[in-house]
């Protein structure tokens, strides 16, 4: 187990360097934009080219992201995603511990598109296990619940090509001015609610409904 954890640390070192500057940044993003599709986007709801696109930048190790997923996402999904009114895009932005967040996203992608959001939400829901057990146990347990063997898990989190692709997504987010998580954009306009726990459903609804009405 120690050897695998060491490999995980080595695998994510480059990603950690890319994301290290995020460690001291506020958890509410500021500035930037999110217009258009980006390589590696994971989406739900309406098809690409929809009238309204909502982009969320988040991390599976971000406590505020987890709170938003628990308290706001279900109602947002029911109102806008399940009804096909918006295209919801989730973009990965690993936050400290960056190695664990990076590995978590790799596991979600290895689980397959149909299980991606389930894995991401499960990791956010069980973040405390990362502290009470260990990052590897937390990640492996989630991977196995998604149908991956331990061998597949080890291969997944040490995939150099996947790590490189993650780095590109992080760089793209930073180039767009996104500096923290969670961050929300409705048709390239950032939506910010006081409190630091992500955009409220009321504020998102105001922006979405206005865009739908145009």
UniProtKB/TrEMBL annotation:
A Pfam family of this chain: Thioredoxin_4
Residue ranges of domain Thioredoxin in the record: 16-213
Name of the protein this chain belongs to: DsbA family protein
Endpoints of the signal sequence: 1-28
Family: Belongs to the thioredoxin family. DsbA subfamily.
Presence of the UniProt keyword Disulfide bond in the record: yes
UniProt keyword annotation of Disulfide bond present: yes
Database matches in InterPro entries: TAT_signal, Thioredoxin-like_fold, Thioredoxin_domain
Record keywords: Disulfide bond, Oxidoreductase, Redox-active center, Signal
Biological role stated in the UniProt entry: May be required for disulfide bond formation in some proteins.
């Amino acid at each position: 187990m120690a050897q695998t954890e060491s490999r995980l640390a080595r695998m994510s070192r480059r990603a950690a360097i890319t994301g290290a500057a995020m460690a001291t940044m506020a958890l509410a993003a500021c500035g930037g934009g999110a217009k258009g599709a980006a390589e590696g986007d994971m989406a739900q709801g309406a098809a690409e080219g929809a009238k309204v696109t909502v982009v969320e930048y988040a991390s599976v190790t971000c406590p505020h992201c987890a709170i938003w997923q628990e308290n706001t996402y279900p109602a947002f999904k029911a109102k806008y995603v399940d009804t096909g009114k918006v295209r919801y895009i989730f973009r990965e932005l690993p936050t400290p511990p960056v190695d664990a967040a990076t590995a978590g996203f790799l596991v979600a992608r290895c689980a397959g598109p149909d299980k991606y959001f389930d894995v991401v939400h499960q990791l956010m829901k069980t973040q405390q296990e990362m502290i009470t057990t260990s990052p590897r146990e937390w990640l492996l347990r989630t991977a196995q619940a998604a149908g991956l063997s331990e061998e597949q898990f080890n291969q997944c989190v040490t995939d150099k090509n996947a790590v490189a692709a993650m780095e590109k997504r992080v760089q793209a987010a930073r180039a767009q001015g996104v500096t923290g998580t969670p961050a929300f954009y409705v048709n390239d306009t950032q939506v910010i609610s006081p409190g630091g726990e992500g955009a409220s459903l009321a504020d998102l609804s105001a922006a979405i409904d206005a865009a739908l009405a145009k």
